[in-house]
Structure prediction request, 269 residues.
Amino acid sequence: MKISACIITYNEENKISEAVKSLAWADEILVIDSNSTDSTCRIAESLGAKVLIQNWLGFSKQKQFAVDNAAHDWIFSLDADERVSDELKSEILKLKTFSKNDIADGYRIPRLSFYMNRPIRHGGWYPDWQLRFFNRHCGHWKNVLIHESVEMNADAKIEKLSGDILHYSVEDAAHHHRMIGTRYAPLAAEQMFRRGKTSSKLKIFTVGMTTFLQTYVLKAGFLDGFPGFCIARFAAHHAFLKHLLLWEMRNNSQSAVVSRKSKKANPEL
Prediction:
């Protein structure tokens, strides 16, 4: 079993070094960069990674591009803001000693996120299973706008590992707010719109409150202290914003249809 570790990047000079170092055990480290303007590529190459430049295709397609261009069939996918724990590294290296018949086609891995400098184990954030280690002949990245994931073949054998991927995504409150406003909520709304989903004023009014209660109370976010409260509050904002954006998209789309029909019926307008 030879493993290609893949990372997609754009302006990650502050994070790429630790990500690449945590993958030093892999047979290949492949970085797919979407035209960074900082030192991301230079840092990655200095640490032994192979860097390919690819214009941004979207999260799923960019990661699939990495899979398609990897030197080896076994793929380990890591984001630039993630690290491989020592426990996970040991598990994977142990798998390399097994015979072909004793390994699965793909492995789900728990992801432990850090927020306000502490690990978050409640509020729905852990174990946050991620299928990141797989044989590319048995799976591929699903073509979705956001929350991309690997889809395995129907007959693929999937097992779990116990070592964590360590996730350091949120830098501070302002960064968390920007992530929701400029990436997660707009992309989630667009994906819902494409799937024919709708929202309503009642949903927009209530979804923030219900999401907060689910995250903070039902999923025991309160056990993570003040960070747990902040996570629940931002989750509520994300839910509110994506439904508001979806509602706007649906209304604008309907207005455009009415306008086209009106012009068709009255060419002089």
